[in-house]
């Protein structure tokens, strides 16, 4: 099967013909229909999230089940599915405590006795990213990395729910409680930020202020529910937010993942407000923050991982939102591309020229 392989950091992915194993007990073989390109894939390529090459990236997929391993009862061939990186074990304190997205086993992969799920034609193992590796014609995943979805949901739009939509929408719906009428800032209007923006709209936020360095994104943000837009490259975006909100916003979602924008997000948060860190800052970097600002103004900062999801519960709901017209996904897809165009896709993402790009397979 054809796959895009990361052979080294900061180098173009290479299209190669790989072997994929048969499903072991508890595993499912999926024919990939579509895979969104998420900034976290780019962060891995750039070394900000360490993953060992050779590795197949891609973690925002939808597809159709081709075969199931022994003991798999939740899926049958022909089922339409979405894959999610937050695989869960079902028995640890996080799973049983209602926060399965924090399950520490999620990146465990196959046990030692089994061969690698992915390998070269010559038999050399290839690292699988997050039990998915969706920049490939097929995926071999634990059943607990997948959720079955309605057959009438188009798979290209379903793929967005695999990461970006679940992350952004879930940050607004699950990680924090946004009261109706609260003021919200969305910092960064990629697939993740535009989904957080829609979450703010769905819960009935008051002002929804969208900020990006690419002003072409503002008409899209307004169509999706933004009440105000700020060009981060013109003037001081912190002062602009303070002016619009009378001193700072109730909730600020940082959806970029850079040190200066995390600092801006905290500064834009008003007294008693909450900063939600959704963007992933490269692991090697630290962010200086004024602690007294937090104490004296009782600001809160929280991280939000994968939209604090319970994806078997959340994703079918998000699909209903889409099919009912409450969640807009068509507008978020800037282009549908072929696997061979994946490196061009990353170039466009680096330049901020796209909202979401989806790799579509035949
Ligand atoms: N928390 C999680 O579980 C989780 C999951 C998925 C992705 N992420 C992270 O979320 C972030 C966003 O992902 P994405 O796929 O939407 O990215 P993206 O590249 O599509 O979007 C980022 C946006 O930020 C804008 N931007 C960049 N620098 C800016 C600046 N200085 N000021 C204002 N705007 C600026 C870009 O123009 C772009 O619109 C990334 O850090 C990604 O790794 C986190
Ligand atoms: Zn992602
Ligand atoms: Zn667990």
Q: Would you identify the CATH H-level superfamily of the largest domain?
A: Medium-chain alcohol dehydrogenases, catalytic domain
CATH topology of the largest domain: Quinone Oxidoreductase, Chain A, domain 1
Which class of secondary structure composition applies to the elements? alpha/beta
Alpha-carbon distance between the termini?
12 Å
Helix and strand succession?
Answer: EEEHEEEHEEEEHEHEHEHEHEHEHEHE
Let me know the number of strands.
18
Bound molecules: nicotinamide-adenine-dinucleotide, zinc ion
CATH first level of the largest domain: which class?
Alpha Beta
Low-confidence stretches: none
How many discrete structural domains?
2
Shape: globular
| Radius of gyration from CA coordinates | 20 Å
Q: Portion of residues in helices? A: 25-40%
How does the major sheet shape up? 7 strands, mixed
* Tally of contiguous helical segments: 10
Mean pLDDT: 97
Could you walk me through the main structural features you see in this protein, from its secondary elements to its overall organization?
The chain is of the alpha/beta class. It is built from 10 helices and 18 strands. Strand 15 (269-277), helix 8 and strand 16 (300-303) form a beta-alpha-beta unit. Helix 3 (155-175) packs across helix 4 (191-202), helix 3 (155-175) crosses helix 9 and helix 6 (237-245) packs parallel to helix 7 (259-268). The longest helix has 21 residues, at 155-175.
